[in-house]
What we know:
With about 170 residues, the chain is an alpha+beta fold. About 30% of the residues lie in helices and about 15% in strands. Strands 2-1-5-3-4 form a 5-stranded mixed beta sheet, sandwiched between helices.
Amino acid sequence: MAATLKVGPDEKVRIRVKVNGVWYERDVEPRKLLVHFLREDLGLTSVHVGCDTGHCGACTVIMNGVSVKSCQVLAVQADGAEILTLEGLAKDGKLHPIQEAFWEKHALQCGYCTPGFIMETYWLLSENSNPTEEEIRRGLSGNLCRCTGYQNIIEAVKLAVQKLKELKTIQ
């Protein structure tokens, strides 16, 4: 049985989360969404607020190894979790191979949806390192782009698969 949070409307709850390898403790309102916590409290602006309904995927992050739409998760639900955002992918000033592939294949126009697509791709390839085009399309189906027509995004994922095979890792 899940524990029930018993706090008043003006009370805050202390949470502790590990984001991009760093532990943070903050007091948050129980109704605050994870997307707003990441953006407003931690300054991680790659996590975009798109639809607030879970349909567009612009707010996609990896939480405890699973792709989640952070507009559908309360910050208090993330207490104790490990979260990865786009800011955590690049290492030592070098883009992650997935980021490189999106850049090289011009898999963006306005760029608003791009962080969500990259994070969803990260999760997809961590689950299936050699997806077919159909599996890529199905895996990214929860993310929407209004600009690109998707073909360059699919090509970027295919290129990312090749780059990661050469490195033999998703990290």
